[in-house]
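Notebook, p. 212. Picked up where the previous page left off. The plan for this session was modest: take the two constructs that came back from the sequencing core last week, fold each one, and keep the raw output in the notebook itself so nobody has to go hunting through shared drives later. Recording the first one now, exactly as returned: residue sequence, then the structure token string.
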Amino acid sequence: MHILVFGKDGQLGKAFKALLDVVSPTLVNKPVIQYVGRSECDLSHPDAIRNLLTQLQPNLIINASAYTTVDKAEIEADLAYAVNAKAPEIMAEFAAKNDASFIHFSTDYVFDGEKYGFYLEDDIRHPLGIYGKSKALGEEAVIRVFSNSAKGRYAILRTSWVYGDGSNFIRTILRLAKEREELKIIDDQYGAPTSSDWLASVSLSLALNQQGDLVKFPSGIYHAVPAGAVSWHGLASLAVESALEAGAILKAKPASIRPIRAVEYPLPAPRPMNSRMSTDKLQSILALYGGHFSSTAQSYNDSNKDPGFPHWEGMVREYVFKLASDGVI
């Protein structure tokens, strides 16, 4: 078994390494694992991707890399399309030809956010900006490649508002809360904050069994976010509240975080107002095929009664408490 993880320097890539460092020694069939970042393989160069895949011959490809600078994508469209659309197509082509598994991550930005309620996997894509359009094209390319092959399998995991070991909204808010007594945060855009550690564990539970063999899960798109939803303002308020409970010294307090509308904070790229996504499909698949690589996946898959995914709030609190204990805030 050979696992190749793209995006080793990002939040999700780091989460996969941390998880696999713990999991891989426990597997009967211990995999060879390699992590690559931009210095090892520039995903804007198709031949570099093809050469690496040919050289390494992975059985499981995890694409945790992406062009995610949403606003900058509006002026770097070619780069965004190369990394978010063409690169996953090339990875999919290798997997489909060589009977490998491919785990690819997408985003709530493939939707326009105008739907009332939770998005389903087969809802029509209607991205608003270049970032979302590039990710939507990546999804379509992966599906197209595998539709023409009887080999391999793929999972496109759509997620939202990811945080982990790196720059993210929560860390930005806590930094600003140390500098300012008042913050103004958007309160009419909703989504589910997603821990990169949790996302990695759910993904690995889909891809591998407890022996370390590939799971033959059904190919398709799956939504992978925790339960519940919140606005950016609600997330900022909880982050500050949790940091204060953990003993952090902040100038801003939850009561001094003012809610504003998105139109009051214009940005170069439009954002979906509603990023809530149903996870029923992924939960059902994990119940049948999951490899049990986290306490969350274990409790879920061992249950005869579907308890659902954990709520976002508890994981955010835990994340902020750890930032405080590590001296980051």
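Okay, moving on. Second construct, recorded in the same format:
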Amino acid sequence: MKLGRYLFLLFLFVTSIGSLRAQVIEDPDSIIVLDIEEEEELEEEASEYDSVIVSPNDKYWDFIRPRNFLFDTSYAPANNFYSIWDTLTINPYRIDLKAMNDTIQLVLADYDDCSFHPPAIGDVTSLFGFRNWGRRQKFHFGTDIRMEVGDPVYAAFEGVVRVAKLSADYGYVVLIRHNNGLETLYAHFSQLLAYPGQPVKGGDIIGLAGSTGRSTGPHLHFEVRFKGEKVDPALIIHFPSGSLLNDTFRVDKGCFKHLYEVQAAKLKAKHVKVPRYVKARKNDTILKIANRYRLSPKRLSRLNGLKMKAKIKSGKRIRLR
């Protein structure tokens, strides 16, 4: 009996010491919080990976982050452009740059220390711009690069990791703020190899490619941002050669003209009136008609008693609602 009581007390002592040690080394970046935010409303409606943000179980950091690490935000890069250092929110800035009056010249690389490295080695599979997504067109705010699970992903420029976590839409995601004033985002990792506050150089491996989050296969979703707003990466990087187009990049309202198109598309979608009946076109199917009018194929199939992929005779009346 005494031996059993002794072992029980020893177990309580060891577990309490472990808990105390965990509290001592914990820092603000490693607190587990569920943070649900509405970010950049149109992108979320378009499943553009920002909608629901979940902080990660960050045990992987134990292997790569120094003990008692705490980033001093006074050393955050590009503090002439940014006054916020947020390790959970992808876009905490909420700045509308569509009508900016200034022109800002960013130095991406110089001849003394050109630290650029292509974020991934692979074929581009999807560009920045509108694309078909399921039953409707959505704006794709980055460049997708085909990769295999486990392929290395590299930091594009020198800077400091601001966000490294698990997101419901981006999957495992890393966002880096660079010394040149840009921020770059890398999504769908199978494994993160970076932590908030980590300094990186262009070419440092920050994670392994995968297909986490809203993804249909292994690839890297890569974004370039300035003050939270997305910029077409192809304005900066020539992906076929993996090199910069220029050593400098001019930021002006022309970089964000696509936001007007996105806004117009959103307004148009709200005002589209679906007729009660339509006439089928040549080679139409229920699936094609459903996609055209952004309707449920299953519901349309039931309404008309037709199979979703069966060809419909041209001119046949199809009920939509």
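Notes on construct two before I forget. The radius of gyration is 24 Å.
Flagging for discussion at group meeting.
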